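Person: Please work through this fold.
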Amino acid sequence: KDTVSVLYWSKGRKRKNTQPITTSIMSARTCILAAFAATASALQINIHEPATFLYETEDNYVSAGMSYFPSNKCNWGVCPWGNASVISWNFSDPRFRSAVSALSPLYLRIGGSEANGVMYDVGSQAKYCLPFSPQPPVNATWFNHGCLTMPQWDSVNEFVEATNTNLIFEINPWNNRSGNGGHWDPTNARDLIKYTVNKGYKVFAYEFGNELGYNASTYSEGFHQLHDVMKEAYAGSSLQLPKVIGPDEVRWNDTFFKEFLPMVKDIFYATTWHHYPLGESYQNPDLMENFMSPTNHDSFFSLAQHAYDTVQSVTPEIGIWMGETGGCANSGRNLSSNAFIDAFWYLDSLGGLARAGHKGFIRQTLVGANYELIDNQSLQPNPSFYGALLFKKLMGKKVLNSTTDDPNVRAWIHCARDTTSDVALLLINFKNESVTVTASTTPLMKYSKDVYQMTADNLHSRVVNLNGKGLQMTGAAMPTISPKMVPATDDITVPMTSYSFIVFKGAADVVPACQS
């Protein structure tokens, strides 16, 4: 059985008890609820300099990726990818399309580690388009080859159009380097891009490789080659030339980015970096604590702010994105990355990186492995899917400067989406006691509000409750997402270990930044 370290919190102290999930979590939650049922602390939320906003995200800030890993991709003896490889996934399934359409518009990034070696079954090099090796039943961590067929590429693009998704595609950077003097051979990429243009498919952006670790000049050469191939393929076409983004480097490296970005500023739309702030998915004794630790998350946000500041100092015309993160690395952990507890790092990071100037945030993955937003077997959205959905639908692009008087309760405030009259709050309660927000401590509470309160039976539940009701798809029909309407005179109590989205109706009266 999978096990987790169940955290028992009591008066600022914690102890860990590793038990089988199926027997321990409910009893732990029940004990905690009983202990803290009568406890609720007052919370003060502040908006600093409400006449201005700090940063502005893209409309598609909340986005996700898909990878090529096959079913026999395993880490620590865990093989969670199922049939979610881009090469084999059924993009026409109505349940999948329904869920993604609800989350759209978003960027769908197709890439990841295996994208570096996958060939495309088109043109003069189609003969090198070979299946992954090894094949099942042999399990592996990394693979050779990989082949994207044109019927499957057609399916990807038909799906993108049907779901109002914007495609970001990572090009194979390794093609024939050894036979081409150490330089990238763009032949296969050129044939794929020409095929794409001839079909009339719309691609938002191309990337050049994933976590390659090249030096700045080698990266720059590759990106400029790719851009030249794109310009050649789109010459004379009515389609818009896609953007170029990258380099999808793992972790942030000041020295590299300060050298690299000036080399590509004439062709780059956004720069991307990757980070998995919770550590490894298994054999990580601190994982469960990291999910629930604002201090751990703050380290991530500080690094993100530093990355933003670095980009601004050398190439302010280029935006910065979190190009890939799934919390814990190497496929995620069952009953954690795909459970209610995942929202505590994920939503906190959506708020924290928007607050650190990032314009895009690509979750690993939309589907595939244990950190997927949509379960690759049942096609039921996982709990964090609904958090992402609410963030996208309620939190607008303008990011405000907000704080609370409790380090274990997070408040992220944006101007509300698609209106100039409302203000939206994401409130995350990491504590094992409820918190209450009143008009006496928080002026926003003087306004009427729509409340979306998200709870679960336990932190490792695969079902999230909206205002007390479990959210589940029925067939291809998404559940109804409706708020609880709370009068201006009423307080709001946020339960222990839960989060809430709150839209304050008309509150732009006291937040001038949201009035335009």
